[in-house]
UniProtKB/TrEMBL annotation:
SMART domains: AAA. Its EC number is 7.6.2.9. It is an enzyme of class 7 (translocase). It holds the Pfam family TOBE_2. GO terms for cellular component: ATP-binding cassette (ABC) transporter complex, substrate-binding subunit-containing. The keyword Metal-binding does not apply. This is ABC-type quaternary amine transporter. Keywords: ATP-binding, Nucleotide-binding, Transport. The keyword Transport applies. Residues 4-240 form the ABC transporter domain. InterPro entries: AAA+_ATPase (IPR003593), ABC_transporter-like_ATP-bd (IPR003439), ABC_transporter-like_CS (IPR017871), ABC_transpr_MalK/UgpC-like (IPR047641), Mo/tungstate-bd_C_term_dom (IPR008995), P-loop_NTPase (IPR027417), Transp-assoc_OB_typ2 (IPR013611). It comes from Streptomyces reniochalinae. GO terms for molecular function: ABC-type quaternary ammonium compound transporting activity; ATP binding; ATP hydrolysis activity.
Length: 361
């Protein structure tokens, strides 16, 4: 199947820009996720691809077929794009059986009756629902309805599958199961998929690559590992996982590392990266990369930083203890399998575990 290419999409509503220079390519068979906080423009981007919204400018194409290039001649209506669409609301017709719900897009495409039955049973088998083909939607659970909606999205073998938060109506446990199942289905069918979610765990576990949106702009496109390990901006670092963002000033710089004075604490942190002495910087520090120790003689082992912090709060979450700490004017969140009862504690931090974001002017 050809790739989906989105180039320089801009979109505004009533004079307010909601998408700015959106650019990405989704490869054949790839599971590609648009991730970001509420209102950042994910659904609008998906709607532009689907043809439900018209961008102000830019290009959208699948292989050689141009869906949109800013000219009326190349604005293909949604029904001409051969895309599979599944939304948060399953949008099944309540007065039709499951099989009839799936037949609808096939009838629209004038598929012969005998072929319809084969395709419907094929799609329902893929989602493990063929035994319920003659039921009505209200006779199914939410999870089952969501499977039917997915089956309807793939029954006519679309070129690309577009999914907008399809799991968000499910409870947490079903959502986990549905995630595993959805990933298996996508692999089996091998269909190029664009998935919208604001749930970073969902994005990380499902996707081949993720596009992180903030305020209508793409901040970063990368594999889940790239996005987590090397977030392009402090905003991405803060959105994915639990990351402390500590403001400071570069004290000194040497080959491949800098010393950052944190806030007004007077404490210094050696960080891998480059920066210029005297400039401001933000240091990203993931909670789980901080080691807490009660030992006062904590080793300066191979350049590991040792910071002294005050324990403000400790909460037990079952699997671990979570700590709210203060380093002077800075607040740090950390976690540990051990309960530390003192007022103060040492934080061991490897320079390689710090993400350095020098101030850009
Ligand atoms: N039809 C519309 N008219 C006016 N503004 C709109 C319209 N559709 C979306 N917007 C605005 O565009 C921005 C992006 O909305 P969009 O639905 O794409 O965000 P999102 O990232 O998908 O958010 P969510 O996760 O909450 O669905 C928001 O500020 C929204 O209010």
């Amino acid at each position: 199947m050809p790739e989906l290419v989105v180039e320089n999409i801009k979109k505004s509503f009533h004079g307010t820009t909601v998408l700015e220079d959106i650019d990405f390519t989704v490869a054949d068979g790839e599971f590609f996720t648009l991730l970001g906080p509420s209102g950042c423009g994910k659904s609008t981007t998906l709607s532009c691809v689907a043809g439900l919204e018209t961008p102000d400018s830019g290009t959208i194409r699948v292989g050689d077929q141009v869906f949109f290039d800013g000219t009326p001649r190349h604005t293909v209506p949604p029904e001409g794009r051969n895309l599979g669409l599944v939304f948060q609301s399953y949008a099944l017709w309540p007065h039709m059986t499951i099989a009839d719900n799936l037949a609808l897009p096939l009838k629209l495409r004038k598929v012969p009756k005998a072929e319809q039955r084969r395709l419907i049973d094929d799609a329902l088998t893929k989602v493990d629902m063929v035994h319920l083909r003659d039921r009505y939607p209200h006779q199914l659970s939410g999870g089952q309805q969501q499977r039917v909606a997915l089956a309807r999205g793939i029954v006519y073998s679309p070129g690309v599958l577009l999914l907008d938060e399809p799991l968000s109506n499910l409870d947490a446990k079903m959502r986990n199961q549905a995630r595993l199942w959805l990933k298996g289905l996508q692999r089996e069918v091998g269909i190029t998929t664009v998935y919208v979610t604001h749930d970073q765990v969902e994005a990380m576990s499902l996707s081949d690559r993720i596009a992180v949106f903030m305020h209508g702009r793409l901040q970063q496109v990368g594999t889940p590992t790239e996005i987590y390990e090397t977030p392009a901006t402090p905003e991405v670092a803060g959105f994915i996982g639990r990351c402390n963002l500590l403001e400071g000033r570069v004290d000194s710089a040497e080959e491949g590392s800098v010393q950052v004075q944190l806030g007004t604490t007077g404490q210094r942190l050696k960080v891998t990266g480059t920066g210029s002495a005297g400039t401001s910087a933000t240091v990203g520090l993931r909670s789980e990369r901080i080691t807490l120790t009660d030992r006062v003689d904590a080793p300066h082992d191979g350049g590991v930083n040792v910071l002294r912090a005050r324990i403000e709060q400790c909460s037990y979450t079952g699997a671990r203890f979570e700590y709210e700490l203060s380093l002077g004017d800075l607040r740090v969140h950390a976690e540990s399998p051990i309960q530390h009862t003192g007022r103060e504690i040492n934080l061991l931090i490897r320079p390689d575990d710090c993400l350095l974001y020098p101030e850009t002017v």
